[in-house]
Design brief:
- Helices cover 43% and strands 18% of the residues.
- By secondary structure, it is an alpha/beta fold.
- The chain folds into two domains: 4-159, Rossmann fold, CATH 3.40.50; 164-200 and 231-263 and 279-294, Alpha-Beta Complex (UDP-galactose 4-epimerase, domain 1).
- The strands form four sheets. The protein has a seven-stranded parallel sheet, sandwiched between helices.
- The protein is globular and about 60 Å long.
- It starts with a strand and ends with a helix.
């Protein structure tokens, strides 16, 4: 019998890729969302507000998953400033509701909880840059504590900036969308960059999902794994790569900027030790992203 995986945030950028990946792997895939959405013929959609404890309890009792991939949550730094309490409720309480329900209904379920490369050292909260970082830091602490206290099989993943085809609020998608519009508007063929020297670790979302699968197979309970490329690129480099691969010529207008202090760089070493390898080059990922927006 096929194993059942429950994917929260299934209608999101990573969620849609995860639903497709695990369906193709032969899993019985159940995806959660707040509103009706088509996730594919092989995905069973369950409507659920994860901030409502009774709804989460009913969800786990009904689905009894063998695996949980928790992707849902607030992932926008700006929105976390606008609603810090709501961000904590969504990112922390929903996680605890899920883990509590799993403890009560399906304690042998293995969970991969996706944190963020932007979470900070809980021993030094003076370094917390924004409410989003704080929420993901607390989420990670709660998840690992719940695993220890209730003997649950919980693995934490810390993804970097995930990119690739599909709707996303990230800078690579924003650039691709603008460049795609340039194909039909010659007067708008200028790509403006506000922070050209800012650095990010970018990883193809499809490689990240494959990494989550490796964590289900080989990840050690109670441990945290970086899901990243292990190198940074500037925003200027992103724009230059797009200009290289785009069939539409455009000019890059970079505003004056000073080098930013890069976030602590993660390492994919542990994932690679378990056999994971990224399949997509940075250029291939941007090409696929641009193609997606050109046909959107």
């Amino acid at each position: 019998m096929s194993k059942t995986i429950l994917i929260t945030g299934a209608n999101g950028f990573t969620g849609q890729h995860a639903c497709r990946y695990f369906s193709e792997k032969g899993f019985r895939v159940i995806g959660t969302a707040r509103k009706p959405v088509f996730l594919g013929e092989k995905v069973d959609l369950k409507l659920c507000d994860l901030t409502e404890e009774s709804s989460v309890q009913a969800l786990i009792k009904q689905t009894r998953p063998d695996y949980l991939l928790h992707l849902a949550g607030v992932s926008h730094v700006g929105k976390s400033w606008e609603d810090p309490v709501g961000t904590l409720k969504t990112n922390v309480l929903s996680t605890l509701y899920l883990l509590d329900a799993i403890y009560k209904e399906k304690p042998d379920c293995k969970s991969v909880i996706t944190g963020s490369a932007l979470q900070t050292d809980p021993a030094n909260l003076q370094t917390v840059p924004h409410p989003y970082s704080f929420s993901k830091t607390i989420q990670a602490l709660c998840s690992l504590a719940w695993g220890k206290l209730y003997q649950l099989d919980i693995v934490m993943a810390k993804p970097s900036n995930l990119i690739g085809p599909g709707k996303s609020a990230g800078v690579c998608s924003a650039f691709a969308e603008k460049i795609a519009r340039m194909e039909h508007d010659e007067s708008a063929r200028v790509l403006t960059i506000d922070t050209p020297l800012a650095e990010r670790d970018f990883l193809d979302v499809r490689d990240a999902v494959a990494g989550y699968n490796v964590l289900f197979e080989k990840g050690e309970s109670g441990k945290t794994y970086d899901v990243c490329s292990g190198r940074t690129r500037t925003i200027r480099e992103v724009a230059e790569t797009y200009r290289k691969i785009s069939p539409t010529p455009f000019r890059i207008d970079s505003k004056k900027d000073t080098p930013s202090i890069p976030a602590e760089l993660g390492s994919p070493f542990q994932l690679k030790e378990m056999g994971w390898r990224p399949r997509y080059t940075f250029e291939d990922t941007l090409a696929d992203t641009l193609q997606f927006y050109s046909h959107a």
